[in-house]
Records
---
Amino acid sequence: MRLILFGSPGVGKGTQAKIFSEKLNIPHISTGDILRQSVKDQTEAGKKAAEIMNRGELVPDDVMIEIIKDRLNKPDSQKGFILDGFPRTEVQAEALDNLLRELKIEHVSVINLTADEEEIIKRLNRRRACRNCAKIFTLEEIKGLDNCPNCNEENSFYLRDDDKEEVIRKRLEVFKSSTMPVLNYYEKQGEVIVVDGIGSVNEISESILKALKT
Ligand code: AMP
C-alpha cells in the first residue's frame, strides 16, 4: 500500500501513520521527523531547517525533494510507504509524481484528514514530545509520568517550539496558503478520500481503514 496522508498540522497524521505503518509493515515517512532528526544531529542542513521550523515556515522545496528522493530510494520503501507531511507545496507534489514515475510506482492513495482550526489549535497546545525518541503525547497521556512510556527517558517531555500558539497560527496560515493547493492538485488527478479527523484515535483508524477498503 502507498499512502499520502494529507491534512493540516495537528490533525493527527503522525498518529495514524504510525498505526498503519505497524499494521501494514511499511515505513512511515514523516518529513517533519526526518528534519527534527537532522536538527538533533546538528548537521548543517539541520541548523538551517531549525530556524525555519521554529518560525512555522516551510523548508525550501529543493531540500525537501532531495530528502524524499533519498528516502523513497531506500529498499524498505519498495514494499509500500505512508507519507506524512509531504508533499506540502504544488512543486513538491509535481516532483513526487516525477519520482514515482521513475520508480515505476503507479497507484498512491490520498487521504485528506480534516478537523476545524480551533480544535487543531487546542490539540497542538496540549501535545508534548519526547526529547529522546520524538514520540508525541497528549498531556492526559503523560499526566503524573516522569519517564517516557515509549523509550523510558527521564524528564524528556517538552513543548516543541513549533507547537507554541503564535507559531501554530503561522503554521496554519502557511498550510492554507501553500499546502491547500496540493489538495486541488490531487483532486484534479482523481480521488481524494476525505476522513473526519475528529474522534478517538481508534475511531479515526477505523474510518481510514473503511475508506481504503471501499
Ligand atoms: P511536521 O512535523 O510535519 O508538522 O513538520 C514540522 C515542520 O517541518 C514544518 O512546520 C516545516 O517547517 C517542516 N517541514 C516538514 N515537512 C515539510 C515539507 N514537506 N516541506 C517543507 N517544510 C516541511
---
Amino acid sequence: MTLTPADVREYDEQAGAATETATFALGCFWGPDAEFGALDGVIKTRVGYAGGTKRDPSYHALGDQTEALQVDFDPTVVSYTELLDRAFQLHDPHNQTRTTQYQNIVFVATTSQRDALTAWLEANGLTGDGIETRIEQLSQFHLAEDYHQKHSLRGEDRLLNAFTEAGYDDEAIRESPAAAVVNAHAAGHDTNGLDLPDRQTIRFR
Ligand code: MHO
C-alpha cells in the first residue's frame, strides 16, 4: 500500500478553498490533529501551544502554555458549530484536567465564533460559567516542533516518504491538506475514502 508523490501533489492542488480558522485545546494534540483531519471541510491542521504567557514555548519548556490544535476549514462544507460538536465529543466539559499542558480550552477568535459558542452551549443546556472547559479569546498560537505535526503520518515511513519524495519539507507537510487527511487515515480514522471535494480519491496501494 503506497501513497505516491503524484497523489500528494494532486490532492493539494485541488484542495484550495477560502478558509476560516478554529483553535481548540483537547489534551495531547496528536489525537485531535488526526480527529479533525478526518472531517470533511477541514482543509489544514497544525498543532502548537496557546493559552499561556510564556514566550517562545517548546514541548520541553512549556511554561503555562497548553497543547492546542488549529484547523483551517471551509465554512461552506463544515460549520464552526459542527467543529464545536466534535470538540465537545472529544472532552468532558464537566471535568478539567489538572495539568496546564492538557487543559481543555475553546479559543474564540472572532465575535461570530463567540456567538456560535454561546448558541452551542445554550442548545446543549450549558453555560460558559457552568462548565470546566476554559473559554478564551485567542491571542497567540505558537507552532509546535515539526516532529509533533501530523504525528501519525510521520510514524509510517511509506507515508512520510510519499511527501518527502514529492518535495515537501516540514513546513509543507504541516500545511498540506493531503497530509492532514493521510494523518487521520494513519491514526485509524474513517476519512471517507480520502475523497477530495470533487470526489477524486487518493489511491492507497
Ligand atoms: N508524552 C506522551 C504524550 C505526548 S503528547 C504530544 C506520549 O508520548 O504519549 O503530549
